[in-house]
Specification:
With about 1100 residues, the protein is α/β, with parallel strands linked by helices. Helix 8 packs across helix 10 (about 300-310), helix 14 (about 460-495) runs antiparallel to helix 17 and helix 31 runs parallel beside helix 32. It is globular.
């Protein structure tokens, strides 16, 4: 809640007098983009033109954008540590590259502490905003101050001569950017403009104009064409990209959003720290223009901007316009080769006659060619172009119309379009070599192997129908059972009280028999077994026989008062309908549909506690693991990796990387690191399990872990036997290890795209490799390790409410099922290796999260997919909510965490992590972690009701919440199905949009006080919130960072002879569509994480950010 002064209110309503341009982004290896997205929206509404780069942006990328876009300001959010080095490096790079007047703003919540803020201000950062600034100024006040400080006319920096912009050095491009600003503002020197125009008229430089409907994928297609040009011509050509986006009429602001989609514009040879970009690196100059008041899809300055780029000496100029309507063709007079980009969904074929650009376009791309009706669209558009050109002698299928999929890496349709463009551009003066790309003899995208087949995109709607159908059947069976019981009871009463009415009694029995015959066999069996179940749970021990061995489980404990507390309490129902309904919809833990719990009983003597650690180098984290697991029978090691590792990079000296090494997680770059990390833990011991929270580079990290476990046992054999194992013995050890190693790797690339943002490869490629892991696990009988942890936690942390968290997470899980089935795997071969990960917050729905998840999964698996019992069991990990941790009244966080842990244990979670109270501001300290673990231990060992393992069953509100949450999830399934399933919904940004909306709703209610948060917006500390100037911050030391660099360098030197061939082999496996994980198992032995990531980028494609 903000009570702003007049000064801050004035800032909140500030509007610039000059055109102000900002670069906005989240820092390198940082996926937290919610805050910067809010900031850039407010900037736009205040009249600023915003070039948004999205998450995970290096200092070089941000500075290059700021220089080429000639921005007045840079706004960066940084929540992942390493901020001091990041911002200082940015100031240094701006000064060294001609951008010393560009102002730098930043923020990172409580992550950037007051002494660091002062240090950065002293170094030259304009302003770092703290949470206290936000409370005083409000968001609009902060943004208003930024705009006010940057409200300056940059026209005076424009060059005075044409010579200043000629060439491709750093200062030439900087001068070109400044001249374009003057041209945009209409303030360039008239004489200079005349010289530019006259000189440009003598230059034979082709201009390719790309226009099309909004959302057709113009930016992605432009990027893919540039990538092919650079690859095909060995990166010898220089390209200028001019991208135009619309201005908002009301505010004058603009979202210049094309740069975020461009992966191919960056230097392919990145300069080292302290070095300037040279001609060998910079190949693409990109500048965004806003339409401003021109009233068209192009900028009024466009002709002069094209002329300036011609004077600069680029080999090719590409102009991309904003989205256009049917009657727009403003680009045509300004370019040599107009291209029109559309999608297959243009409506009836007659609509094509209204599209003006089909008269002028020399090339037409029907993008997103994987959509329904694409081939029909190709035919219809080709015929229309043939009619427009009156080219009756040329077959329609020879028209310059191409079906493309720019979102798919190495799409042959895009390659065919590029190769058709080459001769036309060559004729216009582009100096082209023959090229190295193989010829694509197609007119549209081929080899389409969708992750989920088109015929299966309604899978979520089918699951909704299945679950509702099962529940309807259960209730119908319960009604029959009730009637059978009632009729038999009526017959018995008639026989006793009305012996003369024998026919009536017989009729009642006859009716009971008919109703019983209508009951399904499973329903009759459940009722018949009910007395035995009651007897089994009534004693002091539960006894089962497995392979002639009796397994005994104690069923009771005694309270201090001597009261007997049952481990599992059964309902006291006498009505057969209620009993059967309970058995079919709830049942005891460990019995279908597993609503009450996945397993019959919790493990004896083992708390569901996970020991979470990750900091510094692997030596420090290994020490922390040993401390956390000391005295614990089960070693459940949960690993957090630093952001450098999370994004698949190696540690490096470059400041924006170096600052993040070993912060907020452990630095792991090689197999050597992984061995140190888990040294001293028997990874094949049944009581040891390892969880690894990593997604983008998860296949590489998993391969390192598997090799660590294998080498651990090979070393053990050598130590025990005094010799190396034979080849046969080694193979048997490998086989045994893979069958016995226990743990989980997160590897959920779907939720990364939806909410977490640590995607590094294209989604299609990432899902392909996940499928490879699943197949590898099947073939090698890896049965105790989960190949994916389908995660709702990060969806919740991004802002989703509990309904969306559960719906999106389960829908992602079913998407993996469909994808793996499409690859030919059997459901029971891979489904048991899927696990889930949820967040528990303060909302009431969290109380039944596990109940609903287990029932939906079990019913769908059994009734729809025909899966066996092992596959029906949903296993999940719970973590208490990080979002409910607050910097204000920080000690209150443990109270919230305790309540969240309690409902997780009541709901029979399979494992649990309790957050430390100080995680709101720093990596948890040793003391705060000990307190967090104590929460679980006190609940499990001291809390009396926790001795019972089904305490939630039978409560009216629990049953009602279960029904309400389940139906809400099924309705969400149907909404996603309407959008083409999870992948179709992701393409339109549906999940991400919902998450952001729900996040904003929470923040609004928190801000207004309608959602009370004790110590934050109500029951505030009367003495105020002390700003802690000195905190115990868990940061990696310089010694640890240097040690990691030395170890990495040593690993590279030792394997210098082997790694190049191995990386080529890995790339070839991708090209030939082989099992990539099989090769990764060998590659990690000689290649570092960063080497593998960069090699896979070349053949698997880099993730393309979304707005």
């Amino acid at each position: 809640m903000t009570d702003m002064s007049a000064e801050y209110k004035a800032l909140a309503s500030y509007r610039p007098t000059h055109k102000v341009r900002f670069i906005t982004a989240a820092s390198l290896f940082d996926g937290h983009d919610a805050a910067i997205n809010i900031m850039r929206r407010i900037l736009q509404s205040m009249g600023a033109e915003v070039v948004h780069l999205g998450h995970n942006r290096s200092v070089d990328e941000v500075v290059t954008a700021a220089l080429q876009e000639d921005a007045q300001g840079i706004a960066i959010s940084s929540y992942q540590g390493g901020h001091v080095e990041y911002f200082k490096y940015m100031v240094d790079l701006l000064k060294s590259r001609g951008g010393e007047h560009i102002q730098v703003f930043g923020g990172g919540g409580g992550v950037i502490v007051p002494p660091e803020i002062r240090e950065l201000h002293a170094y030259g950062v304009t302003r770092i905003y703290s949470p206290e600034d936000g409370q005083k100024m409000g968001l609009a006040g902060m943004i208003g101050e930024m705009v006010m400080r940057c409200d300056k006319d940059l026209t005076g920096f424009a060059p005075k001569t044409v010579k200043a912009i000629e060439g491709h050095g750093e200062m030439n491009w900087r001068a070109l950017a400044q001249l374009i600003t003057a041209l945009e503002n209409g303030k360039a020197d008239a004489a200079l403009v005349d010289k530019v125009r006259s000189q440009a008229a003598t230059r034979k430089i082709p201009v390719l104009g790309i226009t099309g409907t909004g959302g057709a994928g113009k930016s992605s297609l432009t990027d893919e064409l540039i990538r092919r040009l650079r690859l095909d011509q060995n990166d010898k050509l220089r390209v200028a990209v001019i991208s135009i986006d619309p201005s908002r009429r009301k505010s004058g602001g603009a979202l210049l959003g094309d740069r975020i989609r461009m992966n191919a514009i960056n230097p392919w040879t990145v300069p080292a720290a302290g070095q300037k970009n040279t001609d060998s690196g910079q190949r693409v100059f990109m500048r965004s223009l806003a339409t401003r008041d021109f009233g068209s899809e192009i900028s009024q300055a466009l002709p002069d901007v094209i002329a300036a780029c011609k004077c600069a000496g680029f080999d090719l100029i590409v102009v991309e316009t904003s989205g256009i309507g049917q009657g727009d063709a403003a680009i045509v007079p300004h370019v040599d080769v107009p291209m029109y980009v559309m999608t297959p969904e243009f409506g009836a074929a007659s609509q094509l006659e209204k599209i003006d650009m089909l008269d002028f376009a020399e090339f037409i791309a029907i993008n997103k060619f994987d959509r329904k009706g694409s081939l029909d669209a190709l035919r219809d558009v080709s015929k229309q172009v043939q009619r427009n050109k009156e080219a009756w002698s040329t077959p329609a299928d020879k028209m310059p119309v191409f079906g493309t999929m720019a979102a798919r890496f190495n799409d042959d349709g895009v390659t065919a379009l590029y190769q058709a463009l080459k001769p036309r551009l060559s004729a216009l003066g582009l100096a082209l070599e023959s090229g190295v790309l193989p010829t694509a003899d197609v007119r549209h995208s081929t080899n389409q192997t969708p992750v989920v087949p088109a015929a299966r995109t309604r899978y979520l709607a089918e699951i909704s129908d299945t679950v509702r159908g099962y529940k309807k059947r259960a209730r119908a069976q319960a009604q029959l059972a009730r009637e059978v019981q009632q009729l038999k009871a009526a017959a018995a009463m008639l026989k006793i009280d009305k012996p003369e009415r024998a026919p009536a009694a017989e009729a009642a029995l006859d009716l009971a028999g008919h109703r019983k015959a209508r009951m399904d066999g499973d329903a009759r069996a459940l009722l018949a077994q009910w007395p035995d179940m009651q007897a089994a749970y009534a004693g002091d021990e539960y006894v089962v026989k497995i392979r002639d061995k009796e397994i005994r489980t104690a069923l009771t404990t005694k309270s201090l008062s001597g009261t007997t507390i049952r481990k599992v309490a059964l309902p006291q129902y006498e009505d057969h309908g209620e009993i059967l309904k309970w058995l079919m919809l709830d049942n005891v833990p460990g019995s279908y549909p597993y609503t009450a719990g996945t397993f019959a009983f919790k493990r004896e003597g083992e708390d569901p506690t996970r020991m979470f650690a990750g900091e510094g180098d692997p030596f420090r984290t290994n020490t922390r693991f040993k401390l956390l697991s000391e005295g614990m029978a089960a070693k459940r090691l949960s690993t957090a990796f630093d952001s450098v590792t999370l994004y698949g990079n190696d540690p490096a000296l470059r400041p924006d990387i170096y600052g993040k090494v070993g912060n907020s997680g452990v630095s792991i770059a090689t197999l050597d690191d992984m061995k140190v990390l888990y040294d001293g833990f028997d990874l094949c011991n049944p009581s040891t399990s390892v969880s690894m929270t990593i997604n983008g580079p998860a296949p590489s990290i998993l391969a390192m872990f598997m090799n660590t476990a294998i080498d651990q046992n090979l070393d053990k054999f050598k130590k025990d036997n005094g010799r190396d194992p034979t080849a046969t013995e080694a193979a048997k050890i490998r086989e045994w290890v893979q069958e016995n190693v226990r743990g989980t790797v997160q590897a959920d690339i779907l939720k990364e795209d939806q909410g977490q943002n640590t995607c590094i490869f294209s989604t299609e490629f990432s899902l392909k490799v996940m499928g490879d892991i699943a197949q590898y696990f099947v073939h090698n009988r890896v049965r105790n390790f989960y190949s994916v942890s389908i995660s709702g936690y990060h969806i919740a942390e991004a802002g989703a409410n509990p309904i969306s968290q559960l719906a999106f997470t389960l829908s992602n899980g079913f998407t993996f099922v469909e994808a793996y089935l499409a690859r030919g795997m059997h459901i029971d071969d891979f489904a048991p290796n899927l696990s889930f990960f949820f967040s528990n917050g303060m909302d009431p729905e969290y109380t039944v999260m596990g109940r609903v998840a287990r029932r939906i999964w079990a019913v769908a698996m059994k009734e729809k997919y025909g899966a066996n019992e092992r596959s029906q069991k949903l296993k999940y990990h719970i973590q208490t909510s990080g979002r409910s941790l607050h910097a204000q009244e920080i000690q209150f966080n443990d109270i919230r965490t305790t309540l969240q842990a309690l409902i997780a244990i009541y709901d029979n979670c399979n494992s649990l992590h309790t957050n430390a109270f100080d995680e709101a501001i720093t990596t948890p300290t040793e003391e705060s972690v000990r307190r967090a673990m104590a929460i679980q231990l006190i609940i499990n060992r001291e809390w009396g009701l926790a001795k019972n393992e089904n305490p939630s069953q039978g409560a009216f509100i629990i049953e009602e919440l279960t029904e309400l949450l389940e139906e809400a999830v099924l309705l969400e399934f149907e909404r996603i199905a309407e959008r083409g399933g999870v992948l179709g919904a992701m393409e339109t940004g549906y999940q991400r949009g919902r998450i952001q909306d729900e996040s904003m709703h929470y923040e609004m209610l928190k801000h207004t006080g309608e959602l009370p948060i004790i110590g934050v917006n109500t029951f505030r500390n009367p003495h105020g919130d002390a700003v802690q100037d000195k905190l115990e911050l868990a940061r990696s030391t310089d010694e640890e960072k240097q040690n990691q660099l030395k170890r990495l360098d040593d690993f590279h030197r030792r394997h210098a002879a082997e790694s190049p061939a191995m990386l080529k082999r890995l790339q070839q496996a991708v090209i030939e569509n082989l099992n990539v994980f099989e090769v990764l198992m060998e590659a990690v032995r000689v290649c570092s994480l960063g080497q593998i990531t960069n090699a896979l980028f070349e053949v698997g494609g880099q993730y393309r950010r979304n707005m």
